[in-house]
């Protein structure tokens, strides 16, 4: 369902799912780093040993976005790994 326009004049849509975290969304993102596939690429490139600046240059995004994505990914992976002592 349509829900107005953003400041950049992009069509916004309202989510019909009541469990959705965000109430509105845009089909086309203006900034490439917002796409989930780019976040996966950042992690894959980091695992292969490339630096932060190299990753940012290849994906054409800001280096701070690369750093923040890797920090969030590291925090999420450390929470999922739990050591239980008997």
Could you walk me through the main structural features you see in this protein, from its secondary elements to its overall organization?
The chain is α+β, with helices and mostly antiparallel strands and 86 residues long. The protein folds into 2 domains: 1-29, no CATH class; 31-78. Helix content is 44%, strand content 12%. The chain has 3 helices and 3 strands, in the order E-E-E-H-H-H. It has helices at residues 36-47, 52-59, 63-80; strands at 2-5, 11-14, 24-25. The protein has a 3-stranded antiparallel β-sheet, with no helix packed on it. Helix 1 (36-47) runs antiparallel to helix 2 (52-59), helix 1 crosses helix 3 (63-80) and helix 2 crosses helix 3 (63-80). The longest helix has 18 residues, at 63-80. Mean pLDDT is 79; it is low at 80-85.
Note the main attributes of this structure:
86 residues; alpha+beta; three-stranded antiparallel sheet; 3 strands
Structural class: alpha+beta
Helix content, binned percent: 40-55%
Q: Over the alpha carbons, how many angstroms does the gyration radius reach?
A: 17 Å
Note the main sheet.
3 strands, antiparallel
Uncertain residue segments: 80-85
Terminus-to-terminus distance: 53 Å
| General shape | elongated
The fraction of residues in strands falls at: 5-15%
SSE string = EEEHHH
User: Number of folding domains?
Assistant: 2
Q: Output mean pLDDT.
A: 79
Counting H and I runs of at least 4 residues, what is the number of helices? Answer: 3
Number of strands: 3
